[in-house]
Amino acid sequence: MAKDYKWLYDAGLAGGLDSRSYSGRFMYGDKCLAFVGDSVTEIIASLMEGCDDGEDSPRLMELPRLLRDSRTDNMGLDMVLYFPRVRWCDEWQDADPYPPGDEE
Fold it and tell me: Which range of residues forms the domain containing residue 36?
């Protein structure tokens, strides 16, 4: 069973990023999680803000490993940061990022 990376999708939303499915170079049509922003540093900073849930945050600790495996593409005026090892899941868009009892 694949690891659940919905927390990364939610971190992007919490950080104010646009997310999308993306098929990058050498992915042969497979879709992965991607975020779009003005620059890669803006995207990374927004992800860090979005997944920081306190001291010793396990998600914030996992983010550098995921970033090492990420890739970037230029989309004209915007940049896309994508995670080829994080498969896109259509259900993420339909799910409530803050289920009952987990409100911010």
Answer: 6-87
